[in-house]
UniProtKB/TrEMBL annotation:
Biological source species: Prunus persica
Region annotation (Disordered) ranges: 574-603
SUPFAM superfamilies: Anticodon-binding domain of a subclass of class I aminoacyl-tRNA synthetases, Nucleotidylyl transferase
Domain Methionyl/Leucyl tRNA synthetase: 64-422
CDD domains, sorted: Anticodon_Ia_Met, MetRS_core
Reaction it catalyzes: tRNA(Met) + L-methionine + ATP = L-methionyl-tRNA(Met) + AMP + diphosphate
NCBIfam families per record: metG, PRK12267.1
Protein name per Swiss-Prot or TrEMBL: methionine--tRNA ligase
Class of this enzyme: ligase
Bias (Basic and acidic residues): 584-603
Length: 603
């Protein structure tokens, strides 16, 4: 019992075992290499500190954003898809602003769970990783994910960067060797404190019993960076977002940081420790470096400094809230130790539930993202989750709500407005615009409304308020439908003369609003936005070249010929429509408070 108490005390109350009165009674548990002794807490320098995402950066600085490197123990799930859809929308928005964007995603392919999953499928770990990694690439293609870098942690260049980083931290005196015994969660791939566990030593996340393990590992001196992390968060409150996530991180740090193991003696499938080939580098000390190794070009000799000079520090790490500790505590301390700059922001979003319940195979309610895309299309999937889940909070998927929202917003409000306007233009103007859109809108308050909503959308995208950005764009189409109904151009055309001329101008005004909608919604629904642009007579090359400045009123010109009207978004049939009346979706009141915690699929 005394030995167990000493072991627990060591991790709850970090100490320097070489400079403490506790050294004697811990010596039976801890074995240190004389040449690599853990140092006293010292000061250090970093090349950059975390800064808010919206701060002005040098024009030449790229906007680098990352998703997690997804663990390939199993195929991609809906949570992985949600993170990547959001990251893609943010990347597309910043490209529209004219920024050089480096959007990084990839797969984390080392660790015990990978080897176990491979053995279960009678394949080698390398074969297993190839198959699952490819399944991510295929899903990202189906979801219109336009990433710039896809890094695999089994890439040789990644291994070289990890080893160089490890050696740099080792040279800084922040890696030491120790013997540790404790309860280990295989799914989390980390040791757990008993106070964190449920009955029968079950992990609170995976609800599976942890196993007792004793290993001789290498540790990273995280506790040395306690004060530095506290100062970083105090000086840069936007480093962790949303704000309630920052509160979580500050609470963890105030509770006292514990050094953590960065190697495994019992795991063969991993990168060998540079100074000890009998151990492999712990999965997180490996995978986090993917954000830097991805910046290394395949044609170059892997080099940490060269990779860093290609875009580090990252502008935004986008992650699920369950891995917030690794990104907002472990990772910054590791970077400080290596003398590298910190990412500007870590954004931890929420989880997804289905029909108000957590998802799980045992409940039979899991959602395969590929099935969702094949059934409803990428635009519908992307729009629903970005519009209906307030980014940062937990969100819920219901098929009825999915169909109702997508039909009401994309098929009815946007799609029907474009189709009926083009139909009237074809019938009365031979599908040709009779006047410049800038002239047609002179003195029309609808134009002012559109301009205000476009600016609102721009601000909301920049603040990562993706739901509010979608809402602002949708309000443009709602205002357009109202304008159309009030003006009733179909009646004006019947009157002829000046009334007919006014009606022709009205159609130009509506179509200009549709053009602006296409640009403003393109980060969320890129395929739908292209179909709108194509209906307005533009080429694919022209659409691919648009920037946010194209949301300025006045793009459509006199004489421009529109395409033949074709529905841009087919209404989705709801199997329950015949049984229950479908109500128009109501805008929900958004709450700032943190939702109650649930054990759900990572989003």
């Amino acid at each position: 019992m005394a030995a167990a108490a000493a072991r627990i005390n060591f991790f709850l109350n970090p100490i320097n075992p070489l400079n403490s009165k506790a050294t004697t009674h811990l010596r039976t548990r801890l074995h240190f290499q004389p040449s690599r002794r853990r140092p006293r807490a010292t000061s250090f320098c970093t090349r950059a500190s975390a800064t808010p995402l919206h701060d002005e950066a040098a024009a030449s600085d790229p906007f680098v954003l990352t998703t997690p490197l997804y663990y390939v123990n199993a195929p991609p799930h809906l949570g992985s898809a949600y993170t990547t859809i959001a990251a893609d929308a943010i990347a597309r928005f910043h490209r529209l602003l004219g920024k050089k964007v480096i959007f990084i995603t990839g797969t984390d392919e080392h660790g015990e769970k990978i080897a176990t999953a491979a053995a279960a499928s009678a394949s080698t770990p390398a074969q297993h990783c190839d198959i699952i990694s490819q399944s991510y690439i295929s899903l990202w293609k189906n979801l219109d994910i336009a990433y710039d870098k896809f890094i695999r942690t089994t890439d040789p260049k990644h291994e070289a960067i990890v080893k160089e980083f490890y050696s740099r931290v080792l040279a800084n005196g922040d890696i030491y060797r120790a013997d540790y015994e404790g309860l280990y969660c295989i799914n989390c791939e980390e040791y757990k404190d008993e106070k964190e566990l449920l009955d029968n030593n079950c992990c609170s996340t995976h609800l599976k019993p942890c196993v007792a393990r004793k290993e001789d590992n290498y540790f990273f001196a995280l506790s040395k960076y306690q004060k530095s992390l506290e100062e970083t968060l105090a000086k840069n409150p936007n480093f962790v977002q949303p704000s309630f996530r920052l509160n979580e991180v500050q609470s963890w740090i105030r509770g006292g940081l514990r050094d953590f193991s960065i190697s495994r003696a019992l795991v063969d499938w991993g990168i060998p420790v540079p100074n000890d080939s009998k151990q492999t580098i712990y999965v997180w000390f490996d995978a986090l470096l993917g954000y830097i190794s991805a910046l290394s070009e395949d044609t170059e000799q892997p080099d940490l400094e060269r990779a860093v000079s290609s875009g580090w520090p990252a502008s935004l790490h986008l992650i699920g809230k369950d891995i917030l500790r690794f990104h907002a505590v472990y990772w910054p301390a590791m970077l400080m130790s290596a003398g590298l700059g910190l990412p500007k922001m870590v954004f931890g979003h929420g989880f997804l539930t289905k029909d108000g319940m957590k998802m799980g195979k045992s409940l039979g309610n899991t959602i395969e993202p590929n099935d969702l895309v094949h059934k409803f299309g990428s635009d519908a999937v992307r729009y629903f989750f970005l519009r209906e889940v307030e980014f940062g909070n937990d969100g819920d998927y219901s098929e009825d709500r999915f169909i109702n929202i997508v039909n009401a917003h994309l098929a009815n409000s946007i799609g029907n407005l474009l189709n009926r306007t083009l139909g009237l233009l074809k019938k009365n103007c031979q599908s040709t615009l009779v006047v410049d859109s800038s002239i047609a809108a002179e003195g029309i308050t609808f134009k002012d409304t559109v301009e205000k909503l476009v600016e609102k959308a721009r601000v909301q995208y920049g603040n990562l308020s993706l739901s509010s950005a979608c809402e602002a764009v949708l309000e443009i189409s709602n205002a357009g439908n109202l304008y159309m109904d009030e003006r009733a151009p179909w009646s004006l055309f019947k009157q002829g003369g000046a009334a007919s001329e006014a009606a022709a101008k009205d159609l130009v005004i509506i179509l200009e609003a549709m053009r602006i909608i296409a640009v403003a919604l393109s980060p969320v629904t890129p395929s739908l936005s292209w179909r709108i642009y194509g209906q307005l007579g533009y080429s694919k090359e022209r659409f691919d070249a648009v920037t946010w400045s194209d949301t300025k009123w006045g793009g459509l010109k006199s004489g421009q010929v529109m395409a033949q009207p074709t529905p841009i978004f087919a209404r989705i049939e709801n199997p329950t429509e015949g049984q229950n009346a479908v109500e128009a979706p109501k805008k929900e009141v958004k709450k700032d408070k943190l939702p109650q915690a649930k054990r759900v699929v990572e989003a």
